[in-house]
Amino acid sequence: MASIRSVFALKNSAKLALSARSMSSHPLAGLLGKLNHVAIATPDLKKSSDFYKNLGAKVSEAVPQPEHGVYTVFVELPNSKIELLHPFGEKSPIQAFLNKNKDGGMHHICIEVRDIQEAVSAVRSKGIRTLGEKTKIGAHGKHVMFLHPKDCGGVLIELEQE
Fold first, then answer.
1. Where is the VOC domain (predicted)?
2. Where are the domains of the chain?
3. Which are the contacts of 84, defined by CB distance < 8 A and separation ≥ 6?
4. 0.90 surpassed by pTM
5. Span 74-85, average pLDDT
6. Closest CA to 119 of 92, 157, 90, 155
7. 3-state DSSP call for residue 81?
């Protein structure tokens, strides 16, 4: 009797899994891809880079990104990256962040999308504000758009073309 119950339980859980998958008709379903990176603003780029190097991570050299007002360092992880951000120039948005957060901290998360223009249109249609009218080329040489943190649960989100 117990084995018959197990078969029915297994059959019902399989039905639930199939019905849940087929019910993903949300307009943004399939829009978001994998997590590309978590960005951390740091007042001391060398110290932060050394921290990850000492843990055995592959850490890039600092790259100036004058058009974005930052230096970037990428820490490669098996399933994602960490982007270390440090101010570059007097008008750096990272300096403004560090003025409020002296020790640094998480600045934003970056999520890949299969079609950046479609993603921007979709989020705007949902009332989510973007920080800019047009996409820009980000640190990876791909089109990006930032979403307003007040519309995203207090988190600055960067969408990046796959």
1. 34-162
2. 32-161
3. 39, 40, 42, 45, 48, 49, 72, 73, 74, 75
4. no
5. 96
6. 157
7. strand
